[in-house]
Write a structure and sequence with these properties.
Layout (H helix, E strand, L loop, with lengths): L2 E7 L4 H6 E8 L5 E7 L4 E5 L6 E4 L16 E4 L2 E2 L1 E4 L11 E5 L2 E9 L2 E6 L3 E7 L6 E5 L5 H10 L9 H13 L7
Antiparallel strand pairs: 1-2, 1-13, 2-3, 3-4, 4-5, 5-6, 6-7, 8-9, 9-10, 10-11, 11-12, 12-13
Amino acid sequence: MTFEFTLTARPLRGADKRAFFAVLTGTAGPYGEATVSVGTISRRAELTCPALPEAWIDHPDTTAQGLIALDDRTRLVVAAHQATLTQNRRARAREDRALHITLADRHYTYLSTGTGTEELRDDARGPLTRIRIPLRGDRTITVLPDANPADVALTLILQAADMRALTLTRATLLGALSFLDTGKGEA
């Protein structure tokens, strides 16, 4: 069964603004209400959805801000299985820069397929989910017929990860912008 849903960034106020970097919510078709919360201090993101398997991602660097960094210290867990993540950040082609995920006995690839579009693929079953991410606005996720609840949970928790390295252009542009950002506001 194919279905589409939208993840919307919830506005944060007060204590939530200090505790969370972002909270994304949406109704994931037959699975119901899903929320991905990205912690500020804990550097952990969690998926909350009663009909989907437990999923979380964390990173030990508590000084970083923003989405969860992806490197050899990142822990990604879906349905009580810890994933192994690999990525060639030095490659030039999009396919070669893809994030490779081994989770239990499955081998996934998460890659950019075009401007503002990403896709989760299983090596055996092919494309499972497609994500459209506009410059501003809500993320639209299309779940394809071969996807199961664990695949949907993986897709949702990956929305809390920093995917800058998926394309050379994005990595270069955001790297240059972060170099120019001193972290100090103008007076």
